[in-house]
Design goal:
about 375 residues, mainly beta, 4-stranded antiparallel beta sheet, 1 helix, about 0% helix, disordered N terminus
């Protein structure tokens, strides 16, 4: 049976969820009309300033210099992109594969670089990025697994359309999400297309066991949603994940969720493990408000409660130890959550006192990384482009 829902949020608790995003080993958050604050690993200058290099870490949230209020944040493996209130997309951090756009120099960049304008959505994958412009998906960056959706393995820094099997660009899209090396997009009626690496069956429709040979990839194809052909939301697994095991996708249909791809740690919410080439109902996720897929774990928000499932080598389930769980288990949080973000081996929730994280880099039990007042009092950074 599905887990019981948490009690309703307290009276006066903000109804609108803040922006909360998780990447490889870093995270960012923002309130409306305020610049984002970021914390965690800064190995590739993905926090925007401060010491960088191997082992560089910042525990306290701080603003990204030159970045003003944003509409949406997207965090990849070691880079980040933001959609500004001016509909312009800017990216910063690791730039070795062109994922920072045409201004990429091949070097890491602390300052947000302008990529394109007129965007309605932005997403970041392992080492590539995408945006929606006039209903089309434009992608740039690494392409060794076909994650740019153009049917080639060639990386590029200049945004270009994701194509279907006929070579035509996808049109009429309203949502785009990226995993480590695959992407999925949805149109207004609810049809879902996925493309890129399919070694774990995450694009859907693979071989008899759901997988395709390592190194194989697909151009965009319509996901086989079966008896639930119209999705309201789609969530690929682990944009920041480095290893095999990050191959999964989950679309939402009204109150129900379905999933396909790798499920060896039960991260799809399907009790039978293995790899699934076609969507299966995610048991116990009905009425979930948010889900986040990591490399080998998943977390779900029901109202103000967070529950996690999968492996917990670094405490990704928030239980204070390394236990695995094949069932959703509640995370002991000090207050109700109103937003959830999941990274490689960690997760973060937005509580009344501010962001709280657990897992890789944070410990095996939830710890506070900032306060609500820190985020509410942040001001526009000088020199915003």
């Amino acid at each position: 049976p599905p887990p019981p829902l948490a009690p309703p949020l307290p009276e006066g608790f903000p109804a609108a969820a803040p922006g909360l995003a998780a990447g490889g080993r870093f995270a960012c958050a923002h309130e409306a009309d305020a610049p984002p604050l970021c914390w965690g690993s800064n190995r590739f200058r993905q926090l925007g300033e401060g010491a960088s290099g191997y082992g560089a870490w910042r525990a306290e949230p701080a603003p990204v210099p030159g970045l003003g209020p944003v509409r949406r944040l997207a965090l990849g493996g070691f880079h980040a992109c933001a959609l500004g209130l001016d509909a312009r997309v800017r990216c910063w951090g690791h730039g070795g594969h062109g994922q920072l756009g045409p201004a990429s120099t091949g070097e890491d960049q602390a300052s947000p670089a302008r990529v394109l304008e007129g965007a309605s959505a932005v997403a970041a994958g392992g080492a590539f990025s995408c945006a929606l412009v006039a209903g089309e998906a434009l992608c740039w960056g690494a392409n060794d697994r076909g994650q740019l959706g153009d049917g080639t393995p060639h990386a590029r820094a200049r945004p270009a359309p994701v194509q279907d099997a006929r070579g035509a660009p996808l049109e009429g899209l309203v949502e785009i999400r990226l995993g480590r090396a695959h992407g999925c997009a949805r149109n207004a009626p609810g049809a879902v297309w996925c493309w890129g690496e399919d070694v774990d069956g995450q694009v859907g429709g693979g071989g008899p066991d759901g997988a395709r040979p390592r190194g194989s990839f697909r151009v965009a194809r319509r996901a086989p949603l079966g008896h639930r052909p119209h999705a309201r939301q789609v969530v690929p697994a682990g944009a920041g994940a480095r290893a095999r095991g990050a191959g999964a996708s989950c679309p939402r249909h009204d109150a129900a969720w379905r999933g396909w791809g790798r499920n060896d740690a039960r991260q799809l919410g399907v009790r039978a493990g293995g790899i699934w080439a076609r969507p299966r109902d995610a048991e116990g996720l009905r009425d979930a408000d948010e889900i986040g897929l990591g490399a080998r774990h998943a977390c779900v928000r029901f109202g103000g409660e967070i529950r996690c499932v999968g492996t917990s080598r670094d405490g990704a389930l928030g239980l204070g130890d390394r236990r695995r769980s094949r069932e959703l288990v509640p995370v002991p949080l000090e207050g109700p959550a109103r937003a959830l973000a999941v990274g490689i081996g960690f997760a973060c929730a937005w509580l009344p006192a501010g962001p709280t994280c657990w897992g890789e880099g944070y410990g095996r039990a939830p710890v506070s990384v900032g306060t609500a007042s820190d985020l509410a009092s942040s001001v526009r950074s000088p020199g915003t482009p």
